[in-house]
Amino acid sequence: xxxPLVQAIKQGAMSRVRPxxxxxxxxxxxxxxxALSSGIGSETQKPLAIVVICGLISATLLxxxxxxxxxxxxxxxxxxxxxTDEDEKEYENYEG
Length: 96
What we know:
The protein is mostly helical.
């Protein structure tokens, strides 16, 4: 029936680590000068940069840790429901 659920979740999360972390890291590094500035105009740039950097960190953690865990819990509940004959026929006719 395919790859086991836990292995599929691990593979999916591991395949997303590099692109998600690199994207967040580049955006965060680009905002570091604004977050650490103390010159003229930093009163408006600094808070915005800090909020965006914290948002990038939380989005990265949500994407790589929380979403796979939620999917695991959600899928565990759906596995407790027995498949019907229609589901089995649909799976047999699937060509993906």
